[in-house]
Specification:
mainly beta; outer membrane lipoprotein receptor (LolB), chain A; twelve-stranded mixed sheet; two-stranded parallel ribbon; 14 strands; 14% helix; 48% strand; globular
Length: 222
């Protein structure tokens, strides 16, 4: 008795879909560290080193924390994806600032990523053992984003980073480019262990607090 072609195709399609689902892992907690490098060929003197820093992202449920640390300054952003409120902590030249953002402030701060759409390409590569696909997008202010991301790790919290909210996977390497400026993030480490809840606590002392509007006037949030 011959097999019916449509039945064979049905099982084949389902096998592909199930295999794809098995290869994906939804993650609710994550620590990922990038090495951050900024190059501006127009402003830099010949032979001058590029600016570098460490960028660390912590995710725990609806909460996320992004830390940037360099020899010049440090900055942390704590964001509650459930309420839409955020706190920015910055330390420059010994001065420690705390800036509170409501949901409207948060949207304004990240308006360059509004309606950001990533276009897939045929390129791919393996990063830290994960197969990564390449995609590109352009921000509202003209930065070209090139990202290599894996579909094997899918953050349950899609709001942890507004620039990748519409990306179907986890970015492991990405770059911003506009004119003579290039900002590149390369993976340093990735950890799927639980993240301490204390990472998302807001300091109660030691910081001078200012509003989001005040920070904009001082060009702190840009």
């Amino acid at each position: 008795m011959k097999k019916r072609p449509h039945i064979t195709l049905f099982f084949l399609v389902n096998f592909i879909l199930i295999s794809a689902a098995w290869s994906q892992k939804k993650i609710s907690e994550l620590t990922i560290v990038y090495n951050y490098t900024l190059n501006n060929s127009a402003a830099a003197k010949p032979g001058a080193p590029s600016f570098s820093a460490t960028n660390t992202i912590y995710i725990k449920g609806n909460m996320s924390r992004t830390e940037t640390v360099s020899s010049l300054f440090s900055s942390s952003t704590i964001y509650d994806g459930k309420t839409g409120f955020a706190v920015v902590l910055r330390e420059v030249n010994g001065q420690k600032l705390l800036i509170r953002l409501n949901p409207e402030n948060w949207r304004d701060k990240n308006r360059r990523y509004q309606n950001l759409a990533f276009a897939p390409t045929a390129e791919s590569k393996v990063i830290a053992g994960y197969k990564c696909e390449k995609a590109t997008a352009t921000t509202a202010d003209g930065f070209l984003i090139t990202v290599y991301y894996t579909k094997e790790l899918i953050p349950e919290n899609k709001d942890y980073d507004p620039q990748f909210k519409n990306l179907d996977g986890l970015p492991l390497e990405y770059e911003f480019a506009k004119g003579t400026t290039t900002i590149k993030y390369t993976l340093s480490s990735i950890n799927l262990n639980p993240v301490p809840a204390s990472k998302f606590d807001t300091p109660k002392s030691g910081y001078r607090e200012m509003s989001y509007d005040e920070s904009k006037k001082l060009n702190i949030e840009r």
